[in-house]
Fold:
Amino acid sequence: MRRPLLWREFESGNGAVLRLLRFLVFGGGLLFLCYTAVLPLTWKSQLRFAAIVIAVAFWVKRSAKSHVGTLTLLLLSLYSTFRYGFWRAATIVAFFRDPFSHWSATDAAFILTLFSAELFAFTTLALSYVQVLWPLHRMPVPLPDDPAVWPAIDLLIPTFNEPLSVLRPTALAAINIDWPPEKLNVYILDDGNREQVRAFAEEAGIGYIARTQRTHAKAGNINNALGQLNSPYVAVFDCDHVPTRSFLQLTMGWLLRDQKLVLGGVRDIGLCDQREPGGGGGTEKFSPVHEQPPVGG
Structure:
């Protein structure tokens, strides 16, 4: 849907007048929301007001494509949550203060337990919004022009009893990461010590490391491998998280610029069972990339 030119100018224009206009609109809207957040309404009025808020949210979602739209939706969500929370707290206080309410200690315990759970949910929601309130858009740090000076990297894939059908895509994607082949060493760390995994690694040209004593679970598995390797950098991927081909190109520049940096990333693309909740798209894990020596187990 094509947005009107006036709206596009309002949400993304940089002029002083447009900035002042945005400030006035958001400031006035915020004052209105603060007033209505504690305004008692009949259930019919509340129903009409909720319909208006939902309609506004859908309109903003369809019309606004900039961060202004995102902030507006966050504000409406927090407003709706706060209005419910205020109503909930007010009704609880009124119930306890009503001389005709014959409540017992058991009633109070159940009411306050439920309200505490709701407060926890409210807090979790607010903190999650803080995380996405103003996302950073960092560009990758360029690598040196000469690939000959790029560092060697050991890419480790720890596994225990996951089927080979899960492990294989991750391992094959790892050896196809865009990095000089002589400087990328991929290893499968098989805590299950399985012959079929060993045979697959040998066939694919992937390093294979197994151990007979599985102490300290995955941390022990990784530290056991680190003691046998000597590349200056290490990347660790779970066996069910397929790395993108550009992973090292996008991350290693930061690590070369700051020798004290450790990278732990988020999930994006990968393997996921269609039958699982949220399945179908899958996830990728940008696993830690760090410098040796081994991390603690």
Remarks:
- The domain at 150-291 is CATH 3.90.550.10 (Spore Coat Polysaccharide Biosynthesis Protein SpsA; Chain A).
- The chain is about 50% helix and 10% strand.
